[in-house]
Write a structure and sequence with these properties.
The protein has about 325 residues and is of the alpha/beta class. It has helices at about 30-40, 50-55, 55-70, 90-100, 120-125, 150-165, 180-190, 225-235, 255-260, 270-275, 280-295, 300-305, 315-330; strands at about 5-10, 10-15, 20, 40-45, 50, 105-110, 130-135, 170-175, 195-200, 205-210, 215, 245, 265-270. The chain has a single domain (about 5-310), classed as TIM Barrel. The protein has 13 helices and 13 strands. The longest helix is centred in the middle third of the chain and has 18 residues, at about 150-165. The radius of gyration is 21 Å and the shape is globular. The N and C termini lie far apart (about 50 Å). It binds flavin mononucleotide (FMN).
Length: about 325
């Protein structure tokens, strides 16, 4: 059977819904080429961090670091900046090289929380040939004086600012912890975001009780983490202008199929590629084809949103009903 795996994402025509999420897997042209050969449809480059393109932020970082010496237990909350060797100029070179070496879309990624420097970099990334831009707003609202409306406004302002500077498609990668995520995502869409990427993983620090230290740790994801993403995409599909993308917990062919059925345009992968290498893309695509053949699906588009709650008049009530159902179904033996 002739299976059509094509999808569109922010207006980009993709051969299939598999995108390599921002991670060290995408930091070298040779690896990007291996991903393309294996069948990946688009790649997101590792982020350029706000702290790497702004001198003021560097000084701020240094002064924060200086301050932490008096608080041993807080020291590791402010680690050295990520070991990304690329400053803005080298980053833009990396965008250019990736574009020259690949025929699939190359999405540049900016990671930050304040407007500093984003506009200049966004313009430069566009000039360097980035097919699109992903903004990773990594911000922990730790200040109890800051109301949620101010936190959300920060996101909206960032998107509006970057949108006014570039014409290329713009995705925003966000975390799940908002009082009304759908409302914020719609505002981001109205401010010019072409896609919302659900959800950022916030790395949780561990407490080392012996050394009395807070240790930042990176753990790779498991497919369990996908469930929360599927649920939110299923609830929001068709209710927000921007495309929805899933990142977090996509490891297998069935995970990608689930993302499509929930209503996502693409499924992004980082952990699974870091664990299994670029060749894993070929395995996943072959599993997807096999499943589609067995279940008589001809195209990915045909299944996108089929398990969403688009036609459900009140998803909140539906969710509550399901909550009661699962609690009621739990039986204790003995
Ligand atoms: C080692 C590592 C580095 C990452 N670097 C970035 C980054 O630079 N920018 C970014 O937006 N996300 C980054 N991420 C997050 C991933 O892009 C992805 O959103 C997250 O890992 C969840 O997807 P997964 O379950 O497929 O790993 C990184 C993840 C890992 C594991």
């Amino acid at each position: 059977m002739n299976l059509d795996l094509a999808t569109t994402y922010m207006g980009l025509e993709l051969a299939n819904p598999l995108v390599a999420s921002s991670s060290p897997m995408c930091d070298k042209v040779a690896r990007l080429q291996r991903l393309e050969e294996a069948g990946i449809a688009a790649v997101v480059l590792p982020s350029l961090f706000e702290e790497q393109f702004d001198l003021e932020s560097w000084s701020l970082h240094e002064s924060l670091m200086a301050g932490t010496d008096s608080y041993a237990e807080a020291l590791s909350y402010l680690p050295e900046l990520p070991a990304c060797p690329l400053g803005p100029h080298r980053y833009l070179n990396a965008v250019e090289s990736a574009r020259a070496a690949l025929s699939i879309p190359v999405i540049a990624s900016l990671n930050g929380a304040s407007p500093t420097g984003w506009v200049r970099f966004a313009k430069d990334a566009e000039s360097a040939g980035a097919s699109a831009l992903e903004l990773n707003v990594y911000y922990i609202p730790a200040n109890p004086d800051m109301p949620s409306s101010a936190v959300e406004q920060r996101y909206v302002d960032l998107v509006a600012l970057v949108r006014s500077a570039v014409k290329i498609p713009l995705a925003v990668k966000v975390g799940p912890w908002f009082s009304s995520p759908g409302h914020l995502f719609r505002r981001l869409s109205d401010a010019g975001a072409n896609a919302i990427v659900l959800f950022n993983r916030f790395y949780q620090p561990e407490f080392d009780l012996e050394k009395l230290e807070v240790v930042p740790t990176i753990t790779l994801s498991t497919p369990e983490e996908l469930r929360m993403r599927l649920r939110w995409v299923a609830m929001l599909h068709g209710r927000i202008g921007a495309d929805l993308a899933i990142t977090g917990g996509v490891h297998r062919g069935r995970d990608v199929l689930g993302c499509m059925m929930a209503g996502a345009r693409v499924a992004m992968m980082a952990s699974a590629l870091l664990q299994h290498g670029p060749g894993h893309v070929t395995t996943i695509l072959s599993d997807i084809r096999e499943w589609m053949g067995e279940n008589e699906y001809q195209s990915i588009r045909q299944m996108q949103g089929c398990l969403s709650q688009q036609v459900c008049p009140d998803p909140a009530a539906f969710e509550r009903a399901n909550y009661l159902k699962v609690l009621g179904a739990y039986t204790l033996s003995g």
